[in-house]
Amino acid sequence: MSVKLTRRDLAKIGFGLGAATVLSRQALAQAPAFFRIGTGGTAGTYYPVGGLIANAVSNPPQLVLTAQASNGSVANVNSIVSGALESGFTQADVAYWAYTGTGLFEGKGKIEDLRLLANLYPESIHLVAAKSANIKSVADLKGKRVSLDEPGSGTLVDARIILAGWGLKESDVKADFLKPNQAAERMRDGGLDAFFFVGGYPTSAITELAATGGGVDLVSLAGPEADAIRKQYSFFASDEIPAGTYKDVAAVKTLAVGAQWVTSAKVPEAVVYEVVKGLWSDKTRAALDAGHAKGKLIRKESALAGAGIPVHPGAERFYKEAGLSKG
């Protein structure tokens, strides 16, 4: 059976299809974008800073950020690659090695989709020692019970570099692989002489240990050994943890790497643009300044400092508009 349609009928159908298309586009535009941030252990610095950023940048229902605890830098990079996370915090050295397929990622292939959202703040290398262990130098770690942090963490990578810089092999120490809060508990119980932690100061695990654990020292990472490490690894910088950062602990010279927020090239440009725009909003600025000591160091002016990997196009667009990008 044939059906004849009048011009009015065709016009109605055309209007209906057009309206459906508009509604479909609006629905897509209004679909929430979920953006997960891999952070670190709950006793470190990544986790609270990630929570502050997620809460401040989220703009539901269009944009929802969540901060998730994780095993740290390397684990976050791997989760971004697998699609388990949209983004994560990582040390600048780990990001560079992942992108170039060198260092820790030697033989595993280049992670060429890794992209920078922002450089955040310097991460200081803490070598925490029990006062009773009488450790005055990295060389004194020989034969001691030392936690190098858990597998998959950037701290473990850097701890091995530090040991090698002072002429020690991992087998020269009685190595353990614990999260910072676990290491602090073990030291408090007398079962550990020292542990490494890389992160922004102050960190809660060390703060609580210094207050209740019978006294701790921070071991200096300075001198010709540190100079040689900085010459070999350009992502390290000289740093100092001020006196009083932890109870009854003097100022100490150390090394630091940049904490960076990274993502995948596969994340849409529009989503990343809104995330980065939100990161540098007045609302987030106020939350960072009030919420954590390291928050004050997260500055738009240094957002591209130490970028060893390409910047995501969505972030690049924001930085160009802000006059910060050379591109």
Shape: globular
- Major sheet characteristics: 10 strands, mixed
The name of the CATH topology of the largest domain is D-Maltodextrin-Binding Protein, domain 2
Which second-level CATH architecture of the largest domain applies?
3-Layer(aba) Sandwich
SSE order, one letter for each helix or strand: HEHEHEHEEHEHEHEHEEHHH
Strand content: 15-25%
How many structurally independent domains?
2
Instruction: Report the structural category.
Output: alpha/beta
Helix content: 25-40%
Can you tell me the CATH superfamily of the largest domain? Answer: Periplasmic binding protein-like II
Explain what this protein looks like in three dimensions.
The N and C termini lie far apart (64 Å). The chain is globular and about 55 Å long. It is 38% helix and 20% strand. The protein has two domains: 29-121 and 259-321, Periplasmic binding protein-like II (D-Maltodextrin-Binding Protein, domain 2, 3-Layer(aba) Sandwich), CATH 3.40.190; 123-258, 3-Layer(aba) Sandwich (D-Maltodextrin-Binding Protein, domain 2), CATH 3.40.190.10. It has helices at residues 7-30, 46-57, 73-82, 92-100, 154-165, 180-188, 204-212, 224-232, 269-279, 282-291, 313-321, and strands at 33-38, 63-68, 87-91, 114-130, 145-147, 174-176, 194-199, 216-218, 237-241, 252-264. Strands 1, 2, 3, 4, 5, 6, 7, 8, 9 and 10 form a ten-stranded mixed sheet that branches. The longest helix is centred in the N-terminal third of the chain and has 24 residues, at 7-30. Pfam families: NMT1_3.
